[in-house]
Amino acid sequence: MVRINLFNAIIGTLAIVAMSVTAKASSTLPVSTDALTSAADLDDDGQPLRYINSVYGDEDDDDYSPSELESRAALRRTKHHHRHSKHRTSSSRKLFTIGPALTDTLWAKKVLITWYASHDLLNPQCGNGGGDWQPENSSHIGAVVKHWTDGPQCGEFVKLCNQNANNRCVLVRVIDKCAGCGENQVDLTKSAFKKLSPSGTLSEGRIHGLQMYRSKQPNPWDLALFGPKVLAG
Ligand SMILES: *[C@@H]1O[C@H](CO)[C@@H](O)[C@H](O)[C@H]1NC(C)=O
Q1: pLDDT, tens digit, 9 for 90 and up, residues 15-44
Q2: Among the four residues 30, 36, 126, 154, which has the most C-beta atoms within 10 Å?
Q3: Domain that residue 26 falls in
Q4: Is the residue at 80 inside a domain?
């Protein structure tokens, strides 16, 4: 009994020593702890990833009436996620580029784009982060066939460019699977498709011959356009 008690006492003392060592270590090394917790939220260049929520995603989408746009703008103001530019108007956000960036690398040369909408967008197969976010016509997301050899994976960003549409390029995030698609096809939201169509409308239906690039994560990251960073759950 005595031995056991002594043993327990020793173990107890060791535990207290260990605890105080741990406490000391963490109190003198707060930086390393912070670095660990925020590592997941650094962008591809190692800079802190900043999130914004534009609420209405691609505001060029013509689904919304002026009053709907106004109520969405009001919602956005109450959410107050625009930390750096409170008065940034939606039209100042550039949601396409002319040509790819120098850091974009060619992934596929002849990609077909199509579009899908409404309830087909809901509950994407890559997940919606378990939150209340659902993709909308005004999101910049896409779906690809399940077994596309070397194709984009769940959550990855691709930049699609159409040389026949003034070389416009749009960054989209792949978050869904497309049963009726083939390889080298990306099924897009209406807003992303329209930016890449020569007519600026949906009338083409399907457009061949786009270039697809691997692209860096956007920073700032618009949750309305791309959804939550972690999709599973
Ligand atoms: C999304 O697009 C579809 C097809 O054009 C349309 O019927 C639907 O009303 C749109 N959804 C919203 C919320 O505007």
Answers
A1: 444 444 444 443 444 444 444 445 568 888
A2: 126
A3: 2-39
A4: no
